[in-house]
Structures are given as C-alpha cells and as structure tokens.
Structures
1.
Amino acid sequence: MKKSKNDLLQGTLDLLVLQSLSLGPLHGLGVSDRIAQITQGHFKVKPGSLFPALHRLEEAGWLKSSWGESDNNRRAKYYRLTKAGQRQLKVETEGWQRVSLAITSALKATS
Amino acid sequence: MSFLSRIASTWRNLSDKDVVDQELTEELRAHIDLLTDQKIREGLEPEAARRAALLEVGGVEQVKERVREVRMGRPLDDFSQDLRYALRGLRKHRAFTVVAVITLALGIGANTAIFTVINTILLRPLPYEKPEQLVVLTETVSDRLAGVSYQNFVDWRNQNTVFENITALRPRESFNLTGAGESERLQGRLVSANFLSTLGIKPIRGRDFLAEDDQPSATPVAIISHALWQRRFGASEDIIGTQLTLNGQQYTVIGIMPADFRFGAEADITVPIGLSAERFKLRGKDPGISAFARLKQNTSIENANAELNTIAARLEQQYPDTNTGRRVRIESLRESVVGDIRPTLLTLLGAVGFVLLIACANVANLLLTRSAGRQREMAIRIALGAGRMRILRQLFTESMVLALAGGVVGLLLAIWGTSALASYIPEGIPRMTELSVDVRVLVFTFVAALLTGVFFGLAPALQSAKTNLTETLKEGERNSSPGHNRLGRLLVISEVAITLVLLVGAGLLVKSFWRLSQVNPGFDPQNVLAMQISINARPEEGPRVDNFLTGLQQRVKQLPGVQSVSVSNGIPFEGANFPPIVLEGKPAPPPGQDPSGLLYIVSPDYFKTMRIDLVRGRLFSTEDRKDTPLVALVDEVFARQYFPNEDPIGKRFKLNTPDADSREIIGVVRHVEHSSLEGRTTNIAEFYFNFDQLPLATLPRYVRRVNLLVRTTVEPLSLAGSVRNQISALDNDQAVFNVRTMEQALAQSVAARRFSMMLLAVFALLALTLAAVGIYGVISYSVAQRTREVGIRMALGAKTIDVLNLVVRDGLKLVLIGIVVGLAGALLLTRLMTTLLFGVTATDAVTYVTVSLGLIIVALLACSIPARRATKVDPLVALRFE
C-alpha cells in the first residue's frame, strides 16, 4: 500500500477506531467518545470522518455491525471487532510503534 | 482486506442499494438521537440539545455521500448509471440510433468478413502436424520454374541430411472407375509411401501406405477419399480390402482419408507412385512431380536450400544432358499455398479499413449534431458540480454502447456475408473450405468495435471538453456552434479523401479487368462447347477407340446447330503436355537448353472449330492419314524461336524420346494464349500433331482424357445433352466430364481477379454511399444553422438560384479539398497494388479523372437536397425563428 499523507492519516484513524473497539462493542457515538477518552481529548472524530471509516472497516471485514439497544433504550448500530479485525489491530499497532519510534529517534538526532 | 468480503460488500451495495442506504439513514438518525441525549445529560434543554447535535454532525446528506464514496463498487455503480442513461438516450432518439448502428455494422461487418477470410487463409496454421516444418521443393531451369524430375527427387531423398521426410506427389491424375455401377472418371494423385506420415495425417479406416506398396512389382493398393467412400460406397465399413477397377487395373482399397483432409488439388484416389515407376524412369523426361518435405528440427530453409543445391550441382556434373542449369528452390508450404493471394487480401483489408473509417466519421458527425443540442445540458451539469471526467466518461459510455451494438450486428452481417461469399469464391483460392468464424475473429470484431467507439466518441468528447460554461449558458436557446461545424467539415473532407482512394483502387481493378477481357487469346471462344471424355480401353483396343472417335465426330457433326467438331489432346485453358523436342538438322543445343513446346494433338477440324488463323503453309486435312507422311503445325512463337530468319515449312522435328517419329512442318498458325490472358504464356512455343496420324497402338493412352470441341450456331450448352447422348449411344464404356463452353473456361482463368475486383467495387460503393450520407448530414446541419441568414438574404431579394449556389458552393468546397487530399493519397497507396493490375498503371490519369468527376457528381447530389430545402425557407418564418 502506498503511504501518502492521506493514507497515514486514514491509517491513524483506523487504528484508533480498532483500538477503541478492542474492549467491546460500541455504537458510532461510543466510538467517537472512546477515542476522545483514550487520546485524552487530542482527537475529536467528526461524523463526516467517523462513519466513512466505520463502513470502510466493516466492508474490509474487520468490524461487524448489528442493531442493538443503547443504555437509555435507544436503537443503535453497534460495531464489534472481528477475528480479522483483532489481527489487523495487532499489525497496525506494531506498524505504528515502529514508525513512531523511528520518527522520535529521528527528531532526537536532528534537534 | 479479504477478497471474499470485498465481493460480498460490492454485491450487497449494488443489489440492495436502497436497503443499504436506508440503514445508513437510520444509523445517522440514531446517532443524532444519542448525541441529543448526551447533550441533555450534560444539562442542555432538549431543543438546544438537538440543535447542538445537528450542528455537530454537520450536513447529514454530506456525511451520507462521504460514506457512499468509500463503499465498494462505487465505480461500478457509476458505470451502471451511465449505461442506463446511455440506453435511455439511445432509445429516445431511435432514428439516430438505428442509423448509427447500421452504419457501424456495415463498417465492422465488412471488416470482420474480410478478416475471417484473412484469418482462415493467412493466419491459421495449415491443418497438418507442425506445419511450420513443411516445405515445398521446386526445380528451376535457368531460373524458370519446372516440374521436379522424379529421378532427381530420388537422389535428393537419398543424399540429403536436412529433411526428416521427403515425399513426392503427382497431382491431377485421372482414374476411370469401372465395374460395379456407372463408370466414373475420378481425379487422383500418385504419392510416395510416406506422403501421409510426412503431413502427420492418418487414414480414419484401414492403414497407411507401406514402403513395400511403393514398388513397381507391388500389389496395387489405393486409399480413397472420405467423400468417395460416402458417395459411391455408402460409407460401408466393408470397403477396406475390396477391389476397385481403376484404369482397367485392380486396386485393393487399404484406407480412407479423413473427411477434412486436403492437400493441393482434390483427389478421390491416392495410390503409390512406385506402381508407375516406368513413367518416371527417365531423368528430366518424365511427366514431373511436386516434392515437399518436413525439415528436421532446428534446420532452417536456408540450410536446406544450400544443401539441396549442392546436391543439384553434383547431379549437374553427373547428368549434364538433363541437369545442366537445374537448381532447387525451397519455400515454406505456407508461402507456396498462400503467397499469391496475400497482396489481394491485404488490399481488401485496407479497403474495408477505409470503409470503417468513413463509417466512424459519419457516426461522429451524427453524435456532434446531437451533442450540439445537448451543450446546455452539459454546461448546466458541469455548473452543478459534475466533474468533467464524469461527463466524458458518460459520453464514452454512450459511444461504446453504440459501437458494441454495431459490432454485434456487424458480426451477424459478417457471418451471413462470409457464407454468402464462400459460395461465390472461385476455385483456385486456397483453403476456402476451412472458412469459419473462430475466437480470433470474435476478438478482432470486439477490438474493432472498441477502437471504433473510441474513435468516433472522441469527437463529441473533445467538443464537450472545449465547452465554455459561461458562453454556453449565456447563449440561451441559440445552439449554433462553430466548433461543431469545423470538426464536421474536417470529417467530411476526410471521408471524401478516403472514398476517392477506394474509388481509384476499384477503378484501377475494373479497368484491369476490362483490359483483360479485351485480350485476344488467339482463338475465338464464343459458341464453342467443350467436354472431356475418358475412354477405358486396353492397349490392344486401338481400332475400337479409332472407330469410336471417327464415328463420334461424324455423328455430332450431323446434329442441328453444329458447325464443326474436333477432338484433341490438350486445349487452351485446360491443359496440354510440354515435352522436350529435337530439331533435325540443327546442332545439338547446349545441355539443359533442350527446345520444348506445348503439344496439342488435334483432329483436322480443330482450327476451324477454335478459329485459329493459319499464317502460312497449310492446315491438317483428311488427306493426312496414318499411312501418309507424318506432319506437324507450329505457331508463330515456335517459328520465331527455333527457326529465326528461316522458313520453318519443310523443316522436321520430333519429340525427344528414344522411339519418337520425325514430322514435317507444313504450316504456321497464330499463337494461342495457353493458360493466361495476362501474357504469362505469350512466349511459349506451341506445336500441333494430327490426331488422325496417331498409331493405333498408342491411341488408347491418349484417349484416357480427350477433349471434344464443338462449334455451334446456337447456345453451346443447349447441345450438351444431345452430344452426350451420341457418346453413350456409340460406346458406353466411357465417362464424360467437365462440360463447359470455352468462354466459361476463359472466365474461370480470370475468376479470382474478377472476384477481388467485385469485392473492392462493392466496398468502394459502400464508401461512396456513406460519404454521400456524411456530406448530406453536414450540409443539412449547416443549412439549418444558416436558416436566419438565408431568410435575411431572401428578404433582401436573393433568388432561389443564389441560395442554391450559396449552399452548393459551400459543400463543393469541402468536396474539392477532399478530392485533392484523396488524389495524393491514391497516388501513394495504389502503388502498393501494382501486382494486381493488368494493362494499366497505378497512376492511370483516365481512372483518376473519371473517378473524381463521379465523386463530385454524387457530392453535388448530396448537397442539392439540403440546398433545395434552403430555398424553401420562408423569410418571415426564418426571421422569427430565434
């Protein structure tokens, strides 16, 4: 896969979405809240990016969706990680760590 | 990403599009509700909470569109949308669609048909095992082609190291099948025992020849054709091992050829050549054979050529009398089968390619006219945010749909056309029985259609790319577009130019053919009935044969409508022997340069029947009998070649065989074209023996295949029946075949040429029609555009003739430019077809001028229809028009 800037950003979003679902199924809003939570508010994912990402990951077979009831009895679409999704999360996490390590050391070297 | 899940998603997105969309809508609604709940929990009033939630989500429709964009199958979805749109548009403009599809179908169909022929003849491998290894060997004497002498062939076979197999073939041997059932004359071939195995062919029943069968003393065996087996023997399985009487000799049937087996001339009977070794025992004086061979793996034709010519040089030393100057020429079997026809086929392919270009130009023009009316639509769509790529893609989809529809109809036309073509194809064009549409043809048609679509689709696409948004939208209802006119005019000019090239090509062929039909063959073919008789007679039955022939001529002469009758061995446009001769009283010629000539053995009335003029001396007469001195006639070429500056009359010559009789020349007759009107036999010497002077002992050999010629005062073929009756009344042990008029025989010799001429003429006319339609279209369009201008002119007092002038001059200008371009093109391209021309040069001024004038006249007619319409413009209506 070519690593254009968009891909990188998209990859980051995918990673965050997968990570946020690693503890259990969530609906769209839940995913976006969880991301905000685990990044200490650094990332706020808007629906315009969130839903395309969810649908794309589902079509890739990494997520599976089903309709369910929310805490306050509202019908909502829940996403959960599939086996393939868990594998993908591992792959992407490792990839990200490598990249971040490399960039961190690169920045250290030049500064 | 898993491939399966991609497919599943694509399928779901496309098939359950509405359900998928519905779900998305619900999901987003739920999201907003949840968000609202969250906001309420954070302490906002329900109203404010909902507003805040909506604000945070942004445009719901935009989110939905962004989700749709990332979904699988989006390009496919766009495509199916374009396709539906294109189909709807084409259905709506039915007249346009029909005209475009027919035009394309004609163009693509013509190309597919010709490609089918080319594919069969030139591209498909020959139907033998590893055909690329097969080569044909011919002998040349001082660079002129000659039949291969069997004894040389035997030496090649024994001495070469380059061939896996080398085999001899003597085609066109005739066999009289007698015994059970009606006697029948069959065509056959003599072959070496390894003939079939060299080709990699096995008999479908029985066995192949063995080396033992190929000996003079062997029990005669034969392999029969599948067709003969079916026809004569009812496909009986018991045929293997039965006896056939062929030419009075018993042959055992040992095998049946495969149904589709063909090699050279048709043959129902194949027998080992070794059985007739006696006929081939004299080196250089035998009837001649064809030789072909299979090269050893990794041996090139050049290597084989080098080695065979080394052998030939050795034989030259060894047998100077017969082999001086004899060389070997080797070419691939494919080249020898299809080499002659290649230029014709390529010319035709070029011609249909041009027809397709014209068809493209016409459809492009139609599309332009149509898209002129759609420019506003396009501009609005672009203004509303449709990408230009998206619009181009849609235009192309439409072009492709048209092109593929044209391709399908064209393919049907071609399939129908080739089968129609096949029944008109003259003999002598190789491999036509194999003609069929195969995968390669289908691919060709598909690619041709696609390219066609791209080509004519370019015009409207280019135009739409140039669309200036604001201008188009400002122009309001007026839909004039100078761009369209310019492109349209360019198309017309090219159409005219291409058509002119085609017309010139066809014109040159027509003129060649006409020239050919003006050639004087040296005899008068009109009102001559010809047929061949083969009489089955044992060597001692000479008197019986003599009686039969004398009686037959007397009887036929009595028939009403008959002027004169003659029999002959050898006639023009059918065949004759070409034996070497010895001129008496002349020094022996240098080795390898024996004089020779075409021998016709004819009864005295032959010259009267064929109307061959006597130049000097006298003709044969009834005074010349078996017991009077032997006489001969020679033609002018013979006299000039062998008796230059001498009077040939009174000189003597004989055939170059050990026991030949010497004959005295008593007269010189006009030269006769023996097999070609194109001058290929103009310089071949001819001489005549008197049939009546043949010794009775040799007579049965000559009547195995004798011609009966009848000059009639009525339509010759109407006498065929009564002549046949006379023959069977006299002697039933014979077979009559090849009944035709001499005119037909002559026509047969130019049939292939006539066929390609007709095809090219048809294509040129097709091109002319399409070009006329194209001119008509463009001029009509420009007249419609200029309605207002014409109205004003007429209001200001212009007369009908002025308007006519205006429009016609406009069209004529395009046509004249096209003609100039076309003339240049024709001068360049017709040079490639010089091999197809006869009696006319590729730059024949008369043809060029005639064709140009013809094209101008047709173009004027095409312009005159819209011009007349322009004169009917009512100034008032025209001025109110916009």
Note: Residues 388-424 of chain B form the longest helix (37 residues).
2.
Amino acid sequence: MAELRGDRAAMTGLVLLVLLMVAAVVGPLFIGFREDEIDWQNMAAPPFEADGHWLGTDRLGRDLLLRTLLGLRVSLAIALAATLVSLIIGVAWGALAGYLRGRADALMMRFVDVLYALPQVFFVIILTVVFGRGPLVLLIAIGAFGWLTMARIVRGQALALREREFVEAAVVGGSGTLRIVARHIVPNLLGPVIVYATLTVPQVILVESFLSFLGIGIQEPLASLGNLIADGAAEMETAPWMLAVPAGCLVLLVFSFNFLGDGLRDALDPRDR
Amino acid sequence: MNLLELRGVSVKFRQSGTKARDLAAVDGVDFTIAEHEMLGLVGESGCGKTTLGRAILHLVPLAAGEVHWRGQRVDQLGQRAFRPLRRELQYVFQDPNACLDPRMTLLESVAEPLRALDRDAAPADRARRAQARLDEVGIGASLAARYPHQLSGGQLQRAVIARALIVDPQFVVCDEPVSALDVSVQGQIVGLLERIRDDRGLASLFISHNLAVVARLCERVMVMFRGRIVETAGRRALIGSPLHPYTRELLDAVPGIDAGARGRVLRRAAHAQPAKDDASQAVGCPFAVRCPQVLSRCRVERPRLQAAVGGSRLVACHRAGEWPGGLPPFTSV
Amino acid sequence: MALLEIRALTVEFAGTPAICAVNDVDLSMEPRESVAIVGESGSGKSQLLNACVGLLAANGRALGSVRFEGRELLADGNAATVRGRGIGFVFQDASGSLTPHRRIGSQIAEVAMAAQGVAGAAARAESRRMLDCVHLPDAGRRLSQYPHELSGGMRQRVALALALVARPLLLFADEPTTALDVTVQAEILALVAELCRDFGMALLLVTHDLGVVAALADRIAVMQSGRIVEQAAAAEFFAGPRHPYSAGLLAAVPTLAGLS
C-alpha cells in the first residue's frame, strides 16, 4: 500500500474517483432544480449565463449539471453492479476450473470460449427486443459477458496456485476440493482479480454508454452518461456544452478508474515482494 | 503387526519438456515400518524419495504395487475414501515457506486439519488445541498470530511440524524437514523431532539427503538410488561397513570438518562422473554406469534386494558377499 | 601489495526499516590465497561480495574502501571494468551465470571474445579448451547444448569455465555447491581446488557449510549480523575456534562421528 501512496497517478485517480462518487450521490441534493424541471426561460442556455444553471441547460431547459450527475449515478451503479456480478461468477467459475484441471476444466473453459465468440451487441439487441429496454435488462446483458474474461484470468491464476505446496498441504490435512478452492485458491488470487475488476469498470461504463447512445440502453427520461452524450452529439454545433459536460465527466471517470487500476497492479506486482 | 507395508511399489511420471521437471520414477520398492519405528531414507535429489513419500500419502497414483496400512490395502482407495486415514498418516514438508498459506496466520494453518478431519470440534476448541500444539513446539501465542512472511524458517518449520501432529497421527513422513534451514537451526529442529519421537512413540519415514542427520534420528536406514532401494541396514552397520558401492560413495562424499580435509580434496580427482542418462537403465543395475567394481553381469542382470551378512541387512548388489566387513573407501578414479 | 583489500566496508539498504547488511568489515587477501567467509542466512556475507563488484540492488549503498590490485572498486565505474576480468564470479545457482536460451558454446565464446579479443574459430577452440579444463565429459557435444539439458553439477562446471575464460586473478564463489547433491559437491570442490592451483587464482568463498570451508579454505572469517567475529587460519580454526558463535556453528554440524 505504501507503493500505491507514492504513485501520483494512482492517487490522483483515487481522489478523483472519490470526488465523483460523492458528487454523484449527494450532489443532486444541493442543486436547486428538480430532475424533470423545465426552465422555460432558459432553454439551451450556455454555462454561467443563466441564473443558477452553472453548466447550462439542455434543449428542454433542464439543468445540465444535475442531469449529468444523475447520469453519473446511473452509469456508476450499473457499472459497479455488473462488475460485481462478473466478479462473483467469473471467480467461482475460473477458480474451480483451474483447480480441477483435466476434463472438467476443459469443458468449463470451452463453454467460456463459445460465449466469448458471440457478438455482445447482437445479444443485447435480442434481449432488449424480447424483454424490453431498461436498466435491469442492460445489467443482465452486460453481466452475462463480463464474467468471461475474468474467468479466464482467474483460471490461469488458479492453475498456477494449485501446484503450490500449501495446496498440497491442505490435501494432506484432509480438506476437500471446495474447501481448498474457497480458503486457499481464491484468497490468494484476489490481488490480480481486484486489479482486473478496477480496470473492468470503465470498460463496462463505455459499453453501457455506447448502448445507451445507440438507444438500446437507458431510456429517457432516465439519464445516463451515454444518452446524455447522444443528445449532446445531436446539438453539437449549436450547444456544444451539452456534449462537452457529460463527455468530460465520462472521460474523468474512465481515467480515474484506469489510473487507480494501473497503480494497484504495479503495487501488487509479486516481483516487488 | 507392521504399521506400514509397501510391496513392489512403482510410480511413473511422464517426462515433460525441460530437464528440471523430470522426476525419477519409483521402481519396485518394498519395505515395512513397525509401530514406533523411525526409518531413515537417504538418497540424492531425483532418486525418487520424495515421490515415494507422496505415494504413501496418496498424493500421487501408483503405477504398480501395493501399500498396506495396518494390514489393510489402501493404494486403491479414491481420494474421498482415503480422507479418514489422513488422521493417521501425516506429512511434514520440506520448505516451510512454500507449504504454509501466506494469507493465513500460523494458528489458522495449524488448526486447519481439524476443520476438515474433526468436524465435531467447535472453533474455540480448535484454536485452543492448535495453540497447545504450537506451545509444544516452542511457538507462543504472539508468534502464532503472525503471518509466514514475518517469521524465520526455523519458526515456520516448527509450525509445520505442529500442523502435522495436531490430528494425533500414528505415522508421519518427514520429507527433508531440515534441509532448507541454517545449520544451527537444523540442530534445534532435529532435537525437537527427537523429543517428539520419544514422547509420542511416533512411527516415521525420515527422508533426507544428509546421511549424518538421518543417522542421528533413525536406528534403521535405507539407501535409495534411481528409484530403487539398494541397501538397508542398522545405522552403525551402514556407516561402519557399507555393502553397496553407492552407500560407499555417499560416505566418501561427506565432507569432513577437520584440518585434513583440504589435503584430501586436493588429492581427489576432479573428473566428473559419467552423465546421468535420461533414459533410465531398463536392464541391469542402475548403478552400473558409475560403479567402480562393475562386472559385465551387472549390466544385464538387475540385482535383487536380498539379505546379506546373514542378518537383517539387505543389499542389492551382485558382489555383496565379497566384502563382508564392508567396502573400503574408494580411491580417486 | 595485497590483491584485495577491504577496509571499513559498510553496506546499507534504504527502506522501512533501513537495513545494515555489512557493518565495518576489514579483510585482506594475498594472491593465490583461499579465504572462506562463513555465516548463516542474514549474516551479510553475500552482500559483501556483491558490494565489491558493484552488484548491489538499487537501494543499496556501499561505504568504505575496497581495493583490488590497488584500484578502488567502490569508485564509480571501476567495479564494472574489473567484473569478469580481474575478478571472476560463480553463483549458487548456475542460472546466475548461464543464459537459458543460448547454447553453451556460444556463451563461452562470447566471453572469450570480450576478454581475449579472439573471434570465430579461435573463440570456439577456447570454449572447447575451457570445457576440457573443467573436465566436462563429452565436451564436444556439450558445446551445442542448452543449459537445461545438463545436470546441476555439469552446469556448475560450465559456470566455472565461464568465470575462468578471462583468466581472473581472484574468484568469488557464493555458495557454489549448496544446490548440489553431496557426491556432485565433492567433485566440484575438488575441481575448484584444482583450478585455483593450476590457474594461480585466489579464492574468496562465501558459504554456510563448514564442510565446504574445510575442503577449500586456507583462512576462515566468521560473519554474524554483518560483522566479522573471528578470523583464523583453517588449521587453528578447526582445532578450536575462539569465538562462542564460531564454536556453536562448528558444534551444530551433524557428523557421522561416533557412529562407525
């Protein structure tokens, strides 16, 4: 952890992330406007000009800062939830496959390979057609694919770990497969898993943004960074702030996760032990 | 009744790419261990002694042969069926830094076999028993709460021994338990093992490449070469009058800690032994490649391990009867 | 003039906590002399060798003076010129000397080219000669093999050959036989003794194994926690060491005495 503190990029990322999260959670409470409040006087107003609207308003006169923070909330929530689901399924799947080796491992990883080959966007579109659009469907669609890479990474780590002598010692001590995987394999691969999870979150955010941008993710009037960017892109020439604010927020979010993740990976590098 | 009996045990490994991964097969090993007996097993790295220990503990499958525990055949049991027996047969590993989970405190590691093998014990009871074992080997409560990377090799090895003993086994395979430790610490651990042997009457197979350490702890010693037992004798007989040329070679190679050692080394030839061939000798005696008294018979006919000098000594050498008083030191080639 | 003269050598490593591995050590060596430094793990003996040839880790600092043939090694740049030329180095694990993905012959030839300025066929011939010097069986075939195809003992012979190509005046050996079986160890010890005698080299040996010390050393220095606690000629030392730590080390060695 000392190395992490010394890593300026990582600490910047961490601080920024904390600020963004705090802003997303409590920020909207401090802004005088309501989410769906239409300010007839100040439609498509630029930042700093209209009274009270610090970052301007959108086409319908809704406060942009507020909508951006709410969008941040939604994007973050989906990203964290989807990553958590990926983490749980991926770690369990990969650790078990890596420990069991042989045919069980081969079967489990071929399943992963098959799913991996499916085009994610296509799959999401089908889901939305069948189940309708909305945050839950989006979460399932993203979660269904997010665990695949995690499972592969975890399996590789588990394969190496099972050859370690303390795993053999656990066998000698009478522990069964599940106990060994849960108490010895998983705790010892949490390092790389945490790093990878931190780097997965921005990817999920981008996927969600992309899908929302396409119109198959989060729908109006609910805001997400993706659909805000979509609206902004349409007004790019007349009201560039409508694009700049949510896009800037997305960039900050992705950067901060990536810096933090890189810093964690360097800090946890076993060579430095 | 013998506690442990091995008959014709063989273990084979498929060779993988690099040489470092080649593990010697175990090839037709027989021996018995009686209750309370500590049997020594000496041999060099790659001779199969570690593999043999693992095979007894059901960690690697046998290619041939039988393992009998208390008269009951156990090598054919599945892993699940063998599990209850792990209360009676235990293992002390060589490298204490590798065989302890780096994310568990010593106390947790020592208590762990109880979780698996003694389901009725309550958590508090397990912790108490684990600490009792650790106290027995000289690790107090404050050390027990630490993680492996915070402690020395000697302290960790004591914990490893405590972990092996916590289920009150009747038999323990000790695989090079002191080889990874400094010389002064080795002495302490060997003393600890002596004490445990005397207090508990534990039977054990003590594996080491260091003949001096083995001889201190074990009344009876087996010498292993390329997967085969080549000589078995009481320790005094083995050291005083070795019958197998490989035993003689081992004894000659033990460096003396005296002022005359330098002179002896300078007189000794520095020529290398012929390379250990990858293809193990399928026919004949495996030691024929470097035996100073090899006969043509040795290259074609494999000597069997049989009684010699009319006693409990066993030797696998065609010429065993020629030096009843033991082989004299080999002069430099 | 002494071949190697170490005065007030101190080695420190920055960090939390800071570590002083070697603490004010004095040691000198004459040409063709064999000196052994004995100590347990953590005594600082390996760091002493590393400091002399500039192989300390990035956070390590060496203070004091190390003079080889009169030249100060701790001054910038000098250690690098002397490494491999004036001073040869053999590590515990031959993989410290041998590159795994290159053939043995080419590795020795490369050093020969750098040290002696020979090339091509002459370098190859020198490689062959060195392998013969270390009694590697079937030397011709070995030239085109990779390190992993050889056993531990043979690799250590090759490591010695590599160290000798530049005809150093002083050989550093850090636990050269610890990773080897006892029979192979005996051969390698005999080989080191023979090479030192034939090539006229001094030997500075670092080990925790008193058996190795007895086999090779004229003079013995015992190290504990970074300091040298006793220095004596080998014969005196084994007859009866004076410092209690040395006596303890000697007493702790398991021997076959009393059993035959």
Note: The radius of gyration of chain A is 22 Å.
